Amino acid sequence: MILYLYDNTLLILYFGVCLLAFCRYLSERCGISAWLSALYLCLFANQLVVSMAEFIPGFTRIYQDAYVSMPIWSTVISISASICLLKLSCLLNHTSIVPFSESIALYPFIFLLLVVPTLKSSKGALFIYNSLFPIFLLYRSFSFHALANKTGTAQKEKPLSVFHPIAFLAFIIFSLSGILETFIRIFAFPTYGMISFSRILSIDFLFAVIALIYICFFMQKTAALHTCKTAVNFKERDLGGEISPNDEPAFYYSFCNSYHLTLREQTILTELLNHTTDKQISAKLLISAFTVRSHVHNLLKKTGTKSRQELCALYENSKKHNSG
């Protein structure tokens, strides 16, 4: 019963993140969301197969024999998930192209995943194979930390500055726990059957926590975006009758429309008119300060102004002219 609830909870979390991230990709064309969706699709597919192997007797023997002799399914999932993690770590550090050194480091991992299962079946070979993904996670943790410090220095900004130290520590702890857990299961408690070796509870827990964090983040971001849309999207509002020159919402929409501002740029403009700082905008809209500055740059370019003060003055002067 507990295992049944455990499996279904993971399936719901993994599928939920996969779906939410894909929806965000469709709406914002966000590369991070696309790769996150792909990662959790891999995790969901693997969890689904493992669950079937644990609860469907006829499938259990097939999966058990395949896992001991030639675990093709697990190998494909591990390689796919590793590629997704590599791409995600680069995108989270504002690096769209994967560094050559990082690509090269992936090849030994793939090589071992393909070669180890061909060795003589033994506890040692099984331990090495099952430990490869936690070891790769451990490596990616240190690599991400180094890349974050490098890009943070270059851009004078620490990517994910709030969660970065916590995430770095969590990945190290759970990766090491996964290796230790695998060792204990194979060498200390080998009587639980080969099927138990296909799952690592520490890694499951790590990705489940990440899934919960992302779901909370998605809900907050959606709420923030909904608030911004309500504040600035006056085109869909039923104004009724003639528009008064003193109608602030109507003028605001007219101003944004005249300069062809996007919804996000309209949101940033609203905050700038309220004299909100980059840090406050970043916290409110759940975007990085680097992204805020990028939107401000586009705003200044579109309106032909050279500073934020000049942009606010342009808006006020246009409003006075409209009222007059």
Write a short abstract of this structure.
This protein has 324 residues and is mainly alpha-helical.
Question: Describe it for me?
Answer:
The protein has 324 residues and is an all-alpha fold. The protein has two domains: 2-223; 233-323, Arc Repressor Mutant, subunit A, CATH 1.10.10. 78% of the residues lie in helices and 0% in strands. It contains 13 helices and no strands. The chain has helices spanning 2-28, 31-55, 57-69, 72-92, 100-115, 123-155, 164-188, 201-232, 248-258, 263-273, 278-285, 289-303, 308-323. The radius of gyration is 25 Å and the shape is elongated.
> Span between N and C termini?
73 Å
Element-level helix/strand string: HHHHHHHHHHHHH
Beta-strand fraction estimate: under 5%
Shape: elongated
Classify the helix fraction into a percent range.
over 70%
Number of domains: 2
- In terms of quaternary structure, the protein is single chain
How many alpha or pi helices? Answer: 13
Query: What's the Cα radius of gyration?
Result: 25 Å
The whole-number mean of residue pLDDT values reads: 81
Structural class: mainly alpha
- The low-pLDDT segments are 153-160, 234-246
According to DSSP, the number of beta strands is 0
Query: Biggest sheet: strands, sense, closure?
Result: none
